[in-house]
Amino acid sequence: MKAVVYEKFAKAPKIMNVQDPTPEAHGVVIKVEATGVCRSDWHGWMGHDPDIELPHVPGHEFAGVIEAVGKDVKSFKVGDRVTVPFVSACGACPECHGGNHQVCGNQTQPGFTHWGSFAEYVTIHHADVNLVTLPETMDFATAASLGCRFVTSFRAVVDQGKVSAGQWVAVYGCGGVGLSAIMIANSIGANVIAVDVTEDKLALAKSLGAYATINALQVPDVAEAIKEITRGGVHVSLDALGHPTTCINSIKSLKKLGKHVQVGLLLADHATPPIPMNLVIAHELEIIGSHGMQAFRYDAMLAMIKSGKLRPDKLLGRTISLEESIAALTTMDTHNPPGVTVVTHF
Predict the structure, then answer these.
(1) Fold type of domain 2-149+293-345
(2) Is the CATH number 3.40.50.720 carried by domain 151-289?
(3) Which residues, 6+ apart, have CB-to-CB distance to 330 below 8 Å?
(4) Which residues form the Enoyl reductase (ER) domain (predicted)?
(5) What is the DSSP string of 223-241?
(6) pTM for the complete prediction?
(7) pLDDT digits (tens, 9 = 90+) for 242-284
(8) Which residues pair with 121 in a beta bridge?
């Protein structure tokens, strides 16, 4: 099969012909019809993820058609249209038995623990636990955009943040995760304030339902600006970027008893930001992590999409070829256009 392969971290990947994968007894092989280009893939390419062994194929948010099925798979068959959460759970550990597949103790992640979806085919383990059947009305590009950014935001807003109508919500970073969070929080009835450093992304945030936008380069204190708009702070704030500055500002934006949800990855030199614990204690703030979403929770999200309350298709940006994905991946730290970039041509 054709695949994007990098043999050294932070060095240009190449298009290569590599061996076609075969499924585990409990897994499947999926013919990739669309795969998103995500900042997490950039972190992996940079060498920030200890699970990656070289040579490696990136890609972890995708949709496609089942090409081959392992002998122990019961619920899916060749030809099924499917997508997956970016965390593949084992289904047997204590976390999985508790319904928390997104923090499975034996999790695998295509694009990190094994070769990913910047290729014609990709493998998924424990298919009965991890696969999600796609509605016939959903195209593959939209479905691919769900797998990491949209579902992560859904869990962050709905399950972790427990956002409700009338609340104030701040979202730091208007990339794919942030824009998804804005749309989801707005659909629930929250008043969303979007923060970014580029006007085109803030304009897109506004079009997706943000009540107010703040360009962090144009105000002296973002947290104070948010407190002024909300007259005291937000109920829930999400760091959708993953940077010490946005993490700290997110916490400082909260009203008393507020919740900070960390969604964006804080890796390498950014892994240990100086959290203002004095505020956490004095204001009884909650700091919550959010790491993907279980496959069985897709039903609630897909129901909102079917009803028209959520429109993930509005988040789509460019559609590109597998060859073009190399430039899109390697320049994500310097050139990250609005919307979700999806590979649709293999």
Answers:
(1) Quinone Oxidoreductase; Chain A, domain 1 (3.90.180)
(2) yes
(3) 12, 13, 42, 45
(4) 8-343
(5) HHHHHHHHTS-EEEEEE-S
(6) 0.88
(7) 999 999 999 999 999 999 999 998 877 888 899 999 999 999 9
(8) 31
